[in-house]
Amino acid sequence: MTSQASTDQSPTDFFTDASLCGDPYPYFESLRSKGPVYFEPHHGVAVVTGHEEAIAVYNDAVNFSACNAVGGPLPPLPFVPEGDDISEQIARYRDLLPSSDLLVTYDQPEHPQARGLLMRLFSVRRLQENEAYFTDLADRMVTEVLTRGKAEVVSELGNPFATLVIADLLGVPEEDRETFRNKLTSVPAPIGEASPGAYAQHPLVFLHKCFTAYIEERRATPRGDALTHLALAKYPDGSTPSVLEVVRVATNLFAAGQETTARLLATTLRMLAEQPSLQTKLRAAPNLIPEFIEEVLRLDGPIKANFRLVRRTTKIGSVEVKAGTTVMIAIPTLNRDAERFERPEEIWMDRPRLRGHFAFGRAHHACPGAPLARVETRVMLSRLLTRTSRFALSEAHHGIEGNRRFDYASTYLIRGLNTLHLEFTPGAEAGGSAALT
């Protein structure tokens, strides 16, 4: 006999209630009491809060499609699911689903091929080769900040740093990088609407145009640079991807990487600004910075949910889910589960299973940019801590202690500050590279 998922008639609609954006964690904590799988009443989404059940969904590319990974239940499917296997309908209508050209929405066999191209950019060796540039860039940006003594972290540090790091990784010519910095402004979709992959359409059009020109030119006239390496890359089976397929890999990297890294950096800096003792601890022991970042990812990571579409009627645990059902993996509920993470509300840098969180997803669709996000955040955080003696929240923007105010992205997918205003006091190593020109 098939078990039934729990249901309720909660007035809270996670997908349209903007009040959850500032602090979604009481809602996510309430999900735990509803069992490992339950159908929320507003959109019929099967919400997964159980660890084993979540792992099973992540690992099952046969019964679950990633075609709705970006939007979840919004907008609704462009077709009415028919029968217990909707694979053919997904294939027929895929182009009508949000962000169908983003890697996160791909299924087999396209996904492993495209991912294989992208992963070439994230090898340990490649990141080590580029880290000197990352550090120099971070120093130049920190110099600008220290000159003013204050900064709005998301727009003045996080977004431009992530954009220029990715531009360097892909080999964007130096003369074009300032244009990239100016053009690529992230625009999350408002609550109640499907996210267009964290970007408004015009930046994606800009990226597509630029990289089409780059790849076509490098294939015609190879130069031995990073862009040529990307342009001439082969699929694992030795076949050559089309220009469009390579361009999509490049634009995917910007679409996925800039937004989450900028939000992660802002969150780490907010936590440190609110807890000066943590700043002191990390300045004294910078080797703990990677562990701190893992705890930030677990406690307040940049993604609130992963989505799948049930391709074939199946079970999640003991609960039957019909073909056409949207599945939501509730990441904060999993990451704050006291049965897996002792004292889950605390930052605990010697925590067992430190990387056992779900912030970057799991299995086939685990975030390929996770190593890059970790390096970027570590480098920028290290330079800020080294070159300051203190940084604090701006009371003019965020209020006094005990009555703080913050503006969070109004979207059910992304968890992150829209703005974070900090004031900086230079330290003994305040000097650095020349300002950006």
List the helices and strands and how they pair.
Blueprint lengths: L5 E2 L17 H8 L4 E3 L6 E3 L2 H9 L4 E2 L21 H7 L16 H10 L4 H25 L1 E3 H18 L3 H10 L17 H20 L5 H6 L11 H32 L1 H9 L4 H12 L4 E6 L3 E3 L2 E3 L4 E5 H5 L34 H18 E6 L1 H4 L22 E6 L11
Parallel strand pairs: 1-2, 3-9
Antiparallel strand pairs: 2-3, 4-6, 5-11, 6-9, 7-8, 10-11
Helix pairs in contact: 4-10, 5-6, 5-14, 6-7, 6-10, 8-10, 10-11, 10-12, 10-14
Which parts are unreliable, with pLDDT below 50 for 5 consecutive residues or more?
A: 186-190, 193-201, 433-437
Shape: globular
CATH homologous superfamily caption? Cytochrome P450
- Main sheet record: 6 strands, mixed
Overall pLDDT: 89
How many independent structural domains?
A: 1
Strand fraction equals 5-15%
Number of helices: 15
Structural Rg: 22 Å
Read across the widest sheet, the strand sequence of neighbours is: 1-2-3-9-6-4
The secondary-structure class comes to: alpha+beta
Distance between the termini: 68 Å
Q: Helical residue percent?
A: 40-55%
Report what the structure shows.
- This protein is an alpha+beta fold and 437 residues long.
- It has one domain (6-426): Cytochrome P450 (Cytochrome p450, Orthogonal Bundle).
- The protein is 44% helix and 10% strand.
- It has 15 helices and eleven strands.
- The strands form three sheets. A six-stranded mixed β-sheet has the order 1-2-3-9-6-4.
- A hairpin with a 2-residue loop joins strand 7 (314-316) and strand 8.
- Helix 8 packs across helix 10.
- It starts with 5 loop residues before the first strand and ends in an 11-residue tail after the last strand.
